Amino acid sequence: MPIWFAYTLIVLLVITSIILTMLILLHRGKGGGLSSMFGGGVSSSLAGSSVAEKNLDRYTVLVGIVWFACIVGLGLWLRLQLTSA
């Protein structure tokens, strides 16, 4: 496989890592823990609806699958390069 394939996967991995981090930080805390310690437990119900939470969950799962596929693709590409050299 050509080297541009690996570079494309690396760029996609960096982009999806940043997006995945932002999406995870957008999630609302579900009870105690660090989020409620820093004021997350005081938020009102106006912060988001259930439809917005479901869509956020879907986007997070989708970006997570793309992120995982990039890691698997890079691993397979690296194994192919090491066996052919």
TrEMBL record:
Gene name of the record: secG
Membrane topology term: Multi-pass membrane protein
A GO term for molecular function: protein-transporting ATPase activity
InterPro entries attached to this UniProt entry: SecG
Native source organism of the sequence: Micromonospora endolithica
Keywords: Cell membrane, Membrane, Protein transport, Translocation, Transmembrane, Transmembrane helix, Transport
Function summary: Involved in protein export. Participates in an early event of protein translocation.
Protein's recorded name: Protein-export membrane protein SecG
Family: Belongs to the SecG family.
UniProt keyword Cell wall biogenesis/degradation present: no
GO BP: intracellular protein transmembrane transport; protein secretion; protein transport by the Sec complex
Superkingdom as given in the UniProt entry: Bacteria
Transmembrane segments: 6-26, 58-78
Cellular location(s): Cell membrane
GO cellular component terms, A-Z: plasma membrane
Family matches, as PANTHER family: PROTEIN-EXPORT MEMBRANE PROTEIN SECG
Keyword Acyltransferase in record: no
